[in-house]
Structures are given as structure tokens and as C-alpha cells.
Specification:
- 2 copies of one chain form a homodimer.
- Chain A has helices spanning 14-20, 24-33, 50-63, 81-87, 91-102; strands at 39-40, 44-45, 66-71, 74-79, 109-110.
- The relative contact order of chain A is 0.25.
- Chain A is built from 5 helices and 5 strands.
- Chain A has 113 residues and is an alpha+beta fold.
- Chain A has a single domain (9-110), classed as Winged helix-like DNA-binding domain superfamily/Winged helix DNA-binding domain (Arc Repressor Mutant, subunit A), CATH 1.10.10.
- In chain A, the strands form 2 sheets. In chain A, strands 1-4-3 form a 3-stranded antiparallel beta sheet, with helices on one face.
- At the A-B interface, helix 1 and helix 5 of A face helix 1 and helix 5 of B.
- The structure holds a DNA duplex (30 and 30 nucleotides).
DNA sequence: CGAATCGTTCGATGTTCGTAGAACGTCGAA
DNA sequence: TTCGACGTTCTACGAACATCGAACGATTCG
């Protein structure tokens, strides 16, 4: 039932990572998290239903790109920048640079309180 | 009907590139072409039907990752390494490094005559 | 306890994708 | 011109995917 696990460093697969980053919404989420700050689920803004957002966050989590921490009813999301960098050096920063140049993921933002 | 065009440099989109590279066979094809050499269609070896190979090469071409040149009945494929590098610096080399570390695309080879 | 909040999961829907085989178009060779 | 080689396109199909609304489970608050 529950496949919502955080894969270990060595279990992060390139195909899954690339597939996860082939959707604009998910790239936008990664961009929002790119500064390393932990973000609250509810702060994330994207033009999709919350069930769809939950789905995208799960794909990112399963791919090993993000980590989710629960705290009461809320949860917090962080980018696993160091892990991905260790596994696939230069990949994440290249994608982030590309996304910025390309505008991919602009539809996602965050309510900075 | 025919969408098999080579996109211009500025038309290369990140989402399309990432989607193209989210399939192991296509990553393998890119790896085979990574040395910059032009390869003959018929030299490419992958455990798939030729119609499927044609499909994958089309996806790569449409994404702007490869260029196809026809010569008589044969055609030759090259990686658009410089173009992709100009558009998304560091992305391709990071993916190639990652693929090698990960083993992604090992199923594809080339008959070096 | 009861109500509200938060995020996940379920069910359904329409789309896209990877795959293969068959038919086709093109070109070079006999 | 007839034949064979080469690569593309067509058609089909099952799997995976993005999306939504509704229902659910957990937790906090009144």
C-alpha cells in the first residue's frame, strides 16, 4: 500500500529522477525548495488541486529528491540537495540553472510568511 | 503529419529534454553518441524492435538532443552536444556522468565497424 | 466530545507513452 | 525494371500518468 518511503542514497535512480523532473509543476517545486529552506506544505502555491499537489510531492519523494517531515497535522518539505549532489554530481544545479533560463516551473510559488 | 523536425536552439525546451532522457534506452543512445561521432542507424544495437528504435530516435530528435542526416537509404545520427550545452550548460555532461555511475542505458551499444 | 484543519488515499477519467508488427516509401543494385 | 535493404509511419494495445473530487484518518482546538 504505502510506497511513500524516502529512498536511501544508493537507491536513487537516474531514470526516476529524470522522470520526476520532466513535469513543469515538479520542477517548480524543486525550484522553490532550491534554497535549502524547509517549506510548509500549505505554503506551496500551484494551480492544481491539493490531491494533485500531494501526488507530485510523492513522486519527488519517491525519486529521492525531497524529504517530508510530519509535525502534527502539518508537514514540511525539504530538497535533498546534498544527497542528489552526492549521487549525481552537478545534475541538480544544472537542472535548476536550465529551469531558470527556460522559465520552467514559474507557476509554482510559496507563501513566504 | 510530419513533426520530425530539428528544433532550433532557442526552441529546445527543458521539459522535453528531461522527458526524452527519462527512458533508459534513450539515455543509452545518448551515451553511445556522447563521443561526438556520427553513428549509422544500422549500427545501433538495442533490445527493441526497429520501429521502437525509430520512435526513440524521433523523440530525441524532436527534443533537440540529436540530429539526423539522411544519405540515400541510410541515415546518420549525431548528438547535438554543443547546442544542448549552449542552451542548458552542464546538463548533458551531468546526465552522462550520472548514467555511467548508475549504469543507465547499458543495454544500448554500437557495432563499431 | 465535537468541529475544524491538514494532507493522503481512493476512484474515475482522459491522455500519453513504450512497445511491436505490418505496410509503406525510398533508394541502390542486379 | 525488379528486387532487396533501410528507415518511417500506421495501427493497436496495455501500462503509466496527470488530474480532479470525494472520502478518509490523524491531529489540534474549542
Amino acid at each position: 500500500m504505502r510506497a511513500a518511503e524516502h529512498p536511501d542514497l544508493t537507491e536513487i535512480g537516474l531514470t526516476e529522477v529524470m522522470a520526476a523532473l520532466s513535469d513543469p509543476i515538479r520542477v517548480g517545486l524543486v525550484r522553490v525548495l532550491a534554497d535549502g529552506e524547509e517549506r510548509g506544505w500549505g505554503e506551496l502555491r500551484a494551480p492544481i488541486a491539493k490531491s494533485t499537489l500531494s501526488h507530485h510531492l510523492r513522486v519527488l519523494r519517491d525519486a529521492g529528491l525531497t524529504r517530508t517531515r510530519k509535525e502534527g497535522t502539518r508537514c514540511w518539505v525539504t530538497l535533498r540537495g546534498d544527497d542528489v549532489e552526492a549521487r549525481f554530481p552537478g545534475l541538480l544545479s544544472a537542472v535548476l540553472t536550465a529551469a531558470q533560463a527556460d522559465g520552467t516551473g514559474h507557476q509554482v510559488s510559496v507563501d513566504t510568511d
